[in-house]
């Protein structure tokens, strides 16, 4: 049985951010979701986030993942306006210049 989110008026911005973070971090290749900002303005939800992705991904793959993230948020909050910033994730042994 599908669990639909509660209407925005019945949930705090913090609860909404937790839901979004959990769903975004479950997407394949997303290493983390951080600097997540959620603002409820009337019936619209403004979402701004940074996601970390492996630094060896191709540009096309990064774009597809960012689109998947936006779609996941909008599937759960249809009136959301979503901004996704992508950042390379590097391990301690890896250089970003590589």
Keywords:
about 100 residues; 2 helices; elongated; about 35% strand; 3 strands; alpha+beta; three-stranded mixed sheet
The strand line-up of the biggest sheet is 1-2-3
Low-confidence blocks of residues: none
| Average of pLDDT | 87
How far apart the termini lie comes to: 46 Å
Strand % is 25-35%
Order of helices and strands: HEEHE
Helix content: 25-40%
Shape: elongated
What's the tally of helices?
2
What structural class is derived from the secondary structure elements? alpha+beta
Total beta-strand segments = 3
Instruction: Report the C-alpha radius of gyration, rounded.
Output: 15 Å
- Biggest beta-sheet profile: 3 strands, mixed
Question: Can you offer a commentary on this structure?
Answer:
This protein has 98 residues and is of the alpha+beta class. A hairpin with a 2-residue loop joins strand 1 (30-41) and strand 2. It has helices spanning 13-25, 59-76; strands spanning 30-41, 44-54, 80-89. It has a 3-stranded mixed β-sheet with strand order 1-2-3, with helices on one face.
